[in-house]
Description:
alpha+beta, single chain, globular
Amino acid sequence: MPTNPNFELRGINHLALVCADMRRTIDFYSGVLGMPLVKTLDLPGNLGQHFFFDCGGGNTVAFFWLADS
């Protein structure tokens, strides 16, 4: 892994993506891949939701579902 003397990269907390269909995304990541849904946050102003799947090792894959997408 490349190094930088100004900081130390120790991992990535989460990767955030955007989905068009929250239910299908949950069904796939939890039901097919077996990654538990561990957190869901409502976005302010009824804009949508941000939700997180546990992918092991303290890492998550996160999605934004936006009401107008």
